[in-house]
Amino acid sequence: MTLSGIEERFSLVTIDKEIFINNFSEDVKTGLTSESKYLSFVYFYDHIGSQLFEQICELPEYYLTRTEADILETNVDDIVSEFSEKTVLVELGSGSSTKTRILIEALLNRQNLAHYTPIDVSHKMLEESSYSLLEAYPDLEINAIAARYNEGIDHLNILKDQQNLITWLGSSIGNFDKSEVATFLRHIREIMHPNDRFLVGIDLQKNKTIIEKAYNDTQGITAEFNLNLLTHVNRELGGNFDLDNFDHKAIYNEELGRIEMYLISNVDQKAFISELDLEVSFTVNETIHTENSCKYSLDDIDTLAEESGLSVEKQWFDTERLFSLNLFAPAVD
Q1: Is residue 282 part of a domain?
Q2: Is 283 domain-assigned?
Q3: Which of 72, 170, 198, 256 has CA 20 to 30 A from 91's CA?
Q4: 312 lies in which domain range?
Q5: Alpha-carbon distance 282 to 268, whole Å?
Q6: Number of domains into which the chain is organized
Q7: Is residue 101 part of a domain?
Q8: Radius of gyration (Cα) for the chain, nearest Å?
Q9: What is the pLDDT of residues 34-47, one digit of tens each?
């Protein structure tokens, strides 16, 4: 396959980087000047962060990726049987698209995949994963969008004469607070036609020890991933954060049913961010809240669907019921 042949099957829309940097600047300033400091999980996924997350997915403690992949492999024929000709596969937060290959191959085998539209914040990761897929699958066409979720969704070209399978894998839904996620899902619902479907991986509530080990791996990759958020600030916004002065911590909040991830200052210190003309002071043991990962009960999933104008059409689980794949359909009024 020639490079030119691949390029004919690939397009990439990039949301203006200046918009991204402006959003990044505003979000960092707001988060680090708040009484309880925080940074948005969205900014984990620069190119380095995306690569680190791929390493996390291979860790023995991180059950989510392999469990979801097992569910996909076991049930992919049942999943794709729902879809007819000219299916468009859309993926939110596509990353390396590793698990998505299971769906792509199944749809191509049925000869009903029109094209694949991955949406990811990392331009470089999108290019790398897309070219890898295009080399592997000569009949595949890719229309990629480099953007955050909401911006990417607004650039989708959802056509009525095609059936769209929108996917959101990896339990990324858990990064949204349960009070916020219904708003996002309603945004998805607004662009769906009656025969479109939304396939979402959702991590389930389970033993606290299993969950906490997944976010505190013995190799320290998750810690490196968390600390890379400060490296991102240093590189893009002229920060001078000393990563040695921060530690990683992830705890399971049983009352709220979520993992909470923090960077903890291990000394009294100050950091300066030149692009923001902002000095940030930390006392020893002060935290920056960087991520939540909510875990759901089956009742939670049903409630979420109802609040979002969706209905749970089908569900698939692993044998230990650690994880779920959920096929949502637009609810009938």
Answers
A1: no
A2: no
A3: 256
A4: 3-15+55-207+295-330
A5: 6
A6: 1
A7: yes
A8: 20
A9: 999 999 998 998 88
Note the pLDDT of residue 1: 42
Cα 95 to Cα 152: distance, rounded to the nearest angstrom = 14
C-alpha dihedral (49, 55, 56, 58), degrees to nearest 10 = 160
What average pLDDT does this structure show over 298-318?
96
Calpha distance 289→4 (Å, rounded) = 45
State the CATH number of the domain containing residue 80: 3.40.50.150
64 occurs within a structural domain: yes
Residue with tokens 């490296």: 231
Hunting for tokens 């390029």 — which residue is that?
7
Under the banding of pLDDT at 50, 70 and 90, the label for residue 116 is very high
**Amino acid at residue number 320:** E
> 63-80 vs 100-109: helix axis angle to the nearest 10?
20
Q: What is the 3-state secondary structure (H, E, C) of the chain?
A: CCHHHHHCCEEEEECCHHHHHHHHHHHHHHHHCCCCCECCHHHHCCHHHHHHHHHHCCCCCCHHHHHHHHHHHHHHHHHHCCCCCCEEEEEECCCCCCCHHHHHHHHHHCCCEEEEEEEECCHHHHHHHHHHHHHHCCCCCEEEEECCHHHHHHCCCCCCCCEEEEEECCCHHHHCCHHHHHHHHHHHHHHCCCCCEEEEEEEECCCHHHHHHHCCCCCCHHHHHHHHHHHHHHHHHCECCCHHHEEEEEEEECCCCEEEEEEEECCCEEEEEHHHCEEEEECCCCEEEEEEEECECHHHHHHHHHHCCEEEEEEEECCCCCEEEEEEEECCC
State what percent of residues in the chain have pLDDT above 90: 74
**pLDDT for residue 95:** 83
pLDDT tens digits, one per residue of 88-113:
999 998 888 889 999 999 999 887 77
What pairing do the DSSP bridges indicate for beta strands 142-146 and 287-294? unpaired
- What mean pLDDT comes out for the span 174-187? 90
pLDDT digits (tens, 9 = 90+) for 212-253: 999 999 999 999 999 999 999 999 999 999 999 999 999 999
88 Cβ contact partners less than 8 Å away, ≥ 6 residues apart = 114, 115, 116, 117, 158, 159, 162, 163, 164, 165
